[in-house]
Write a structure and sequence with these properties.
The chain contains three helices and five strands; from the N terminus they run E-E-E-H-E-E-H-H. The protein is α+β, with helices and mostly antiparallel strands. It folds into two domains: about 60 residues, N-terminal domain of TfIIb (Single Sheet), CATH 2.20.25; about 55 residues, no CATH class. It has a three-stranded antiparallel beta sheet with strand order 1-2-3, with no helix packed on it. The structure holds iron/sulfur cluster. The site of iron/sulfur cluster has 11 residues, from loops.
Length: about 150
């Protein structure tokens, strides 16, 4: 009977910035190089409003990190039909193709005018989390304004 291989277990101090309420301090348990658990960072209890603990959302970060279905590249919709029962047919594309596609569309909008015939903006954008402060976006708002 063979003995099981020794596991290397580490606790890595880190922080969660999963939402605009962060950053919040935590510790990540790492077993043989794989993150397995989110734990409080007790060492930060005296300096952190959350006493070194994260909220419940942060406990999903391990699954998020290793989810085999996570998005790893820009995705392009290939089905022009839209509707509740339509498969969007997303396919992964290169960053070059994604940026060239967006640049071409923005140049076209600029040439036609930023507002449509109804006076509404031709460009709309969403960035995921609600209420993401402008200060988190670097120069991106300036780019959009231009
Ligand atoms: S611990 Fe919760 S509240 Fe804090 S940054 Fe992460 S998700 Fe947001």
């Amino acid at each position: 009977m063979s003995t099981p291989a020794a596991r290397e277990i580490r606790s890595v101090p880190s922080y969660c910035y999963n939402c605009v309420a962060g950053p919040d301090l935590m510790t990540v348990r790492v077993e043989n190089g794989v993150a397995t658990r989110i734990e409080p960072c007790h060492a930060a209890a005296a300096i952190h409003p959350g006493l070194g603990r994260v909220c419940v959302k942060a406990f999903g970060l391990v699954q998020k990190t290793y989810n085999p279905h996570r998005v790893l590249a820009p995705m392009k919709r290939t089905n022009p039909r839209k509707g509740r029962n339509e498969d969007p047919g997303f396919v992964a594309i290169s960053w070059d193709e994604a940026l060239d596609t967006i640049a071409a569309r923005l140049r076209d909008i600029r040439a036609r005018g930023l507002l449509d015939d109804a006076g509404l903006p031709r460009v709309a954008a969403t960035f995921g989390h609600g209420g993401t402060p402008q200060s988190y976006m670097g120069t991106f708002p300036a780019f959009l304004s231009a």
